[in-house]
Design goal:
The complex is a heterodimer of chains A (117) and B (114). Chain A has no helices and eleven strands. Chain A has 117 residues and is an all-beta fold. The radius of gyration of chain A is 14 Å and the shape is globular. With 114 residues, chain B is mainly β. The radius of gyration of chain B is 14 Å and the shape is globular. In chain B, strands 2, 5, 6, 10, 11 and 12 form a six-stranded mixed β-sheet that branches. Classes of the chains: A mainly beta (117), B mainly beta (114). Chains A and B meet through strand 4, strand 5, strand 9 and strand 10 of A and strand 5, strand 6, strand 10 and strand 11 of B.
Amino acid sequence: DTGVSQDPRHKITKRGQNVTFRCDPISEHNRLYWYRQTLGQGPEFLTYFQNEAQLEKSRLLSDRFSAERPKGSFSTLEIQRTEQGDSAMYLCASSTRGTRFGGYEQYFGPGTRLTVT
Amino acid sequence: GNSVTQMEGPVTLSEEAFLTINCTYTATGYPSLFWYVQYPGEGLQLLLKATKADDKGSNKGFEATYRKETTSFHLEKGSVQVSDSAVYFCALSLIIQGAQKLVFGQGTRLTINP
């Protein structure tokens, strides 16, 4: 297995356009996470899937953002009517089910860097 | 709320120097603690972790001990190498409504000069 993959790696778009990113998790991982990382900051949690169910969404995820994980495999993150403030690195991570102490690790993909002009 | 505060960077050291990157946290529950590393042009990689108080995580010569009394998880390495140049992120995780959320610090950029 080659790990978590994301596509595209880079995306430049004009303000107002829609963009969609894809994440392919490690095949046996049933949990998938999206994070956003702006320059000079640590990643911030956006949303979480367990299998195909989206169980948690951050307040950071405005109505212009939507994420899906059909069939509990790959996931897509769509941003509608992009704004310059959406420019960031979008990271995907996956994990297996862990203990109730939360000690299992999340494996991160390389990220998609979005630039909105 | 839940938060992580890291030592501000950038940090520049000479090869073979001793490294400490400070990390303190605030959490409402009993978090697990992690250090992730991001090498230039690559994704985040888990460096080490500790799941309960007094646990010591270690990997590649790096160590960090979960100190509940001081709410800290400082990263140390006895002798750094040029290849350790990267951005280091301290993070905590809590199970909230069934999701393991990672809360990251702002990152510390480390540069090691030969």
